[in-house]
Amino acid sequence: MGWAFSLPRIETCINATALCKKLCYGNGIRYQSAGQKAKRQRNFRTSQFLLAEGGPELLAENLSMLVDQARPRDWLTAKITGTQPAIPFTLRVHDVGDFYEPNYVQAWTLTAKKHSECKFWFYTRSFVEEVFAELTKLASLPNCQGWLSADSENYQQAILSLCKAPAGIWKLALLQDSDLHSGVIPAFEGLEMDVDIVSFPHHRNGRHAEPVRHDLLTLCPAAMGNLALKAQKDTLRPCQTCAFCLP
Q1: What confidence tier does 34 reach under pLDDT thresholds 50, 70, 90?
Q2: Could you give the residue ranges of the DSSP H alpha helices within the chain?
Q3: pLDDT over threshold 80, residue 40
Q4: How far apart are CA 236 and CA 161, in angstroms?
Q5: Per-residue DSSP letters for 105-136?
Q6: Can you tell me the distance from the alpha carbon of 105 to that of 109, in angstroms, rounded to the nearest whole number?
Q7: Residue 208 phi, psi dihedral angles, 5° rounding
Q8: Angle between helical axes of 129-139 and 102-114 (0-180°, round to 10)
Q9: How many CB atoms lie within 10 A of CB 233?
Q10: φ and ψ at 207, to 5 degrees?
Q11: What DSSP designation does 209 have?
């Protein structure tokens, strides 16, 4: 996906379902090393400290420094010459973890406003009213795209949050397990609005659950194995190549 920011799941995934805890790719081996765990805990401790010392504004200052590091190496040259950089300037908020309190969301909103040239995107299950209200402000920014993460256990809650928010801001992301609840697709069909829905059939180690195919669903090509990840630093990542989830 390119640059991303992560947090520990236990402390921040405030509306995690039993299913997403079970299937989360954060369970994969690459996320279980001591270094990976320490990084996420450090991010969380630092975020908490900065919020306590200076509120969203102080945290935003520090997040902005991270966003600056995500700029493509040829960004300035491309800007001066009016061309496109080799890879787009993007950042996913949370490859692991979620938004856990309103002030934390506000810090990301300040950061995204400052870096209008960067494309931010995120998936969330934080449907708690106070947090979700701030998330809707973040998702409404022109350089941000928010996705409500739904599965067989919380799809009704995700749809309710979608319908409460102003039209056109949120989209839906389906974590599709191998035994998708029979009510999910009819619930999507019953929506009285046009909304993009991306489906992620559960995938691990190059294998994925048999995908549910429907006109409403756009299957993630990376989850389906159609976009290979290249290790070179200055090459497009699958999410940047597809760009369906980006703003």
Answers
A1: very high
A2: 9-12, 18-23, 34-69, 75-81, 102-114, 129-139, 155-164, 184-189, 238-242
A3: yes
A4: 33
A5: HHHHHHHHHHTTTSEEEEEE----HHHHHHHH
A6: 6
A7: -140, 155
A8: 10
A9: 10
A10: -120, 150
A11: P
CA distances from 6 to 12, 92, 97, 208 (A): 10, 9, 6, 24
For the stretch 53-92, what's the b/e string if a residue is b when 16 or more beta carbons lie within 10 angstroms of its beta carbon?
Answer: eeebeebbeebeeebeebbbeebeeeeeeeeebebbbbbb
User: What phi and psi, each to the nearest 5 degrees, are found at residue 120?
Assistant: -105, 145
Taken as a whole, the chain contains a residue count of: 247
The conformation of residue 86, written as its DSSP 8-state character, comes to: S
Alpha carbon dihedral 30, 34, 35, 37, in 10-degree steps, equals 80
Tell me what pLDDT residue 94 has. 97
What does DSSP say about strands 203-204 and 207-208: parallel, antiparallel, or unpaired?
antiparallel
- Contact between 152 and 184 (Cβ < 8 Å): yes
Q: Does the global pTM surpass 0.85?
A: yes
